Amino acid sequence: MNCRYCGQLIIGDSVKTLAYWNQTTDICHAECKAIGERTEAFDCQTIDADCNDCKHFQRGNLIQNWLSDMADGKATKRLVNMGIFNGMCQRFNTPAKAFPKMSTGRSCFEHRRNIPRVVA
To answer: pTM above the 0.85 mark?
Structure first.
């Protein structure tokens, strides 16, 4: 099997890792795991191009999405997703909303972090 991150053949021990979007398991070299996971998250967030990961977005309050359920005759609430951040786009000086792990494809997106890359 090959390492998920560097693509090289794994000889000997491997470690488990999780894919960023769908959390499926895979394997990699132990030395590739930390940088590989950060690189994959960075790449996926860049593809999503949402304000949540943009360097120009200043976060405000978090609006959590709750859904009411009736279970066994009792009203309960459960969190539907992480929520939405209200905030400000400092690039355009306008109010903005950020949706974690959501693709909005904004052309003005610039990632908030610089990270080291896995080099094959």
So the answer is: no
